[in-house]
Write a structure and sequence with these properties.
single chain; alpha+beta; three-stranded antiparallel beta sheet; two-stranded parallel sheet; 8 helices; 19% strand; elongated
Length: 202
Amino acid sequence: IIGGGISGTSLACSMAQRGAGKGVGIVDVDLYGKFSSSELNGGGVRSTFAEPINIQISLASTQYYRAHADLLDFCQRGYFWMYDQALWEQARTFLPVVREHGLIVEELDAARIRDRFPILSDISDLAGATFTPLDGRLSPHRLRMHYLSEAQRGGVDVLDRWRVIGIENDRPPYIVRMRRVGSRDVRRVLEDPQAQGSPHPG
């Protein structure tokens, strides 16, 4: 698995929990560091999507977060989403789909927005908003480390400070070529896609 962000570590965790972790490896330039997008995002959790498959995935994820709420610092404080006129018209076409999955969605016009959220001083550009009380936020770092820990417990190998530089063959056996990244080279490698890191190939 190339990349140890939320997607990569959740895949590794899922494979491990299904008894398929042996022989799997997860490789990242800075697996325990702070530079990945997973470490820099706000940790928002929501289920207001237009496509049913996205709603179903979000609901399954939310159930998992609730089961590990203390560990992940998951708080269901709700999610407030603001729309301009064009987006508001789109949103009102898929909100019934969201409700079909049992989710509570409050639709707010300008007067109700002003009532509920007086901190917003200027809402002249808003056509409407939604509030979904079952959504919330969590710690992306804690979630990623939880997935990684579960993956390792299930036999997944962790390859930190390695960079994949090539994959050979279009059918098994595949050959994955990697290059070691020194601790002082991490930022340079992340900022420059052409940077090679340590000269010692894996």
